UniProtKB/TrEMBL annotation:
Hydrolase that can remove 'Lys-48'-linked conjugated ubiquitin from proteins. It catalyses: Thiol-dependent hydrolysis of ester, thioester, amide, peptide and isopeptide bonds formed by the C-terminal Gly of ubiquitin (a 76-residue protein attached to proteins as an intracellular targeting signal). Belongs to the MINDY deubiquitinase family. FAM188 subfamily. Transmembrane segments: none annotated. The lineage of its organism: Eukaryota, Metazoa, Spiralia, Gnathifera, Rotifera. This is Ubiquitin carboxyl-terminal hydrolase MINDY. One of its GO terms (biological process) is proteolysis. One of its GO terms (molecular function) is cysteine-type deubiquitinase activity. Its EC number is 3.4.19.12.
């Protein structure tokens, strides 16, 4: 590409170029020729200087980001060779959209609230002690975000147990220097990607997964007449616009999520993840899991089946171990109540103050004693938090359980500092307790004492460690953060 304009080239053509190329002595050029050459070189120098200045001031990063933003939608539809990925991509149909709506909010007429639509997976800012945490609002979507947060914390802790080459590190001093709960921006992005991939892949029994994207246009005509009647489906602006991408390769799934991570970090992000999770599990299998129940309740709160789906990959609506085939009176149930079959990586603790002591929801050991010391704690419909310890050996060494701490995370903006609960399970604690305290610890369930009850967060800890001694951050203050 020439830096010389056409009119400038025409003026230079008047010069006897042959006289220059023949390397005549300078005094053989007349004054006009010298003047024109001087003007030409001066204009060329100015033009080149402008080009250089333009390149020096050019913001390459902004240019790349703009192009990526413009092509993000089209790129997600393409493979490495630039052709449409027809094999893994398909538009949603009316039947699938209907199933998604009915499995979640239970209706094809009513739609998700604006609170759900705004929900997304973004890290909190402004609090150095909690930079590992995803932020949520106090609405129904909070349960989904905290469930994902629990798996994210597991992956973050495991990341801290490996060096830059991926090898396991046993040096506890190195682990402390690693600052497990203070990841940098790159680590936060990587662990979020890993968490999303893991949840979807486990739901698909580690051989299948789906990711959905909003195409921006309706994929079927739900206003058309079907068998002489108008469709009852009411559009919500997202479910009927989904493009479904299917994966049978974990590597391909990882590449796709890395490329499209931003869709989960903006409005509708949680809803797109929820739909991806349902389709990864597959509709028919999910219906079998939930046993005629739903993933989301009437108040748009997450139900136990959704917590289980995120944490275990199976959407069963119960927390007990295995299957229950008889009722409390010994009579055979019409259908068995299917619970958790295997010990899970992340656990669940449950406490509802409204339940009677003899009719409390049973939480089995598969969730109460998970592989890693991380629990999603449920205290009523929308009282949720996460308790965790960063030592992955806590659940496998009884000596470590004698004295330990639990980090508390609510996911809400009102928690602006790190909260830690100290727990002691040593038997000799009874020796330093007063007789009144010993009796209270043993017989409080019979309501013989009129003293104020423990906060729910303490009660839920004691479902795992009965008669433990709890100190550290005040339980009432912690409950105020929920």
């Amino acid at each position: 590409m020439s830096f010389i304009d056409d009119d400038r080239s025409a003026s230079v053509s008047d010069i006897r170029i042959s006289s220059v190329t023949s390397m005549r002595p300078e005094d053989e050029l007349n004054n006009d020729e010298i003047k024109k050459l001087s003007e030409y070189f001066e204009k060329s120098r100015e033009e080149i200087q402008k080009k250089v200045n333009s390149l020096l001031n050019f913001d390459f990063n902004a240019h790349v980001n703009r192009n990526m933003a413009k092509s993000a939608s089209s790129n997600s539809l393409k493979t490495d060779n630039g052709k449409l990925n027809v094999k893994n991509y398909k538009p949603i149909d009316l039947e699938t959209a209907t199933n998604l709506r009915e499995l979640t909010i239970g209706s094809i007429v009513h739609t998700f609230s604006n609170e759900w639509r705004r929900a997304k997976f973004t890290y909190r800012t402004g609090c150095d002690d909690l930079i590992y945490g995803l932020i949520s609002e106090k609405n129904g979507s909070r349960g989904l975000i905290l469930s994902v947060q629990a798996v994210l914390i597991k992956n973050l802790i495991l990341m801290g147990y490996r060096d830059i080459h991926g090898n396991e590190v046993t040096d506890s001093e190195w682990r402390n220097k690693r600052k497990i709960l203070k990841p940098n921006d790159v680590e936060k992005r990587d662990v979020l990607i890993r968490t999303i991939i893991e949840i979807l892949w486990v739901a698909g029994e580690k051989n299948y997964a789906c990711v959905v994207l909003n195409s921006g246009t309706n994929c079927f005509d739900f206003s058309a007449k079907d068998i002489g009647q108008k469709s009852k489906y009411f559009g919500d602006g997202i479910t009927e616009r989904l493009h479904i991408y299917e994966f049978t390769s974990l590597v391909k799934l990882e590449e796709f999520v890395k490329k499209n991570l931003s869709i989960f970090q903006k409005e509708d992000g949680c809803l797109l993840f929820l739909y991806s999770l349902i389709l990864s599990r597959k509709v028919d299998r999910l219906k079998e899991d939930i046993q005629n129940q739903r993933l989301i309740g009437d108040m748009e709160e997450c139900k136990i089946s959704l917590f289980n789906l995120v944490l275990t990959g199976s959407a069963v609506p119960y927390l007990h171990n295995g299957s229950i085939v008889y009722d409390s009176e010994g009579q055979a149930l019409e259908k068995p109540l299917i619970g958790i079959k295997n010990r899970n990586d992340v656990g669940i603790l449950y406490w509802d103050p409204k339940e009677d002591d003899d009719k409390r929801t049973e939480v089995g050991s598969m969730l109460k004693t998970p592989k890693y010391p991380i629990w999603l704690v449920l205290m009523g419909k929308n009282q949720l938090a996460i308790l965790f310890n960063t030592n992955i050996d806590l659940m496998n060494n009884w000596r470590l359980e004698q004295n330990f701490n639990l980090h508390f995370y609510s996911g809400l903006k009102k928690q602006e500092f790190e909260c830690v609960i100290d727990v002691s399970t040593r038997d000799e604690n009874d020796l330093i307790m007063s007789p009144h305290q010993v009796l209270k610890a043993k017989y409080s369930k019979f309501k013989l004492f009129d003293e104020e009850k423990d906060p729910e967060i303490y009660e839920i800890i004691k479902t795992k460690w009965p008669n433990c001694t709890i100190s550290g951050d005040d339980g009432k203050d912690l409950m105020a953060l929920l």
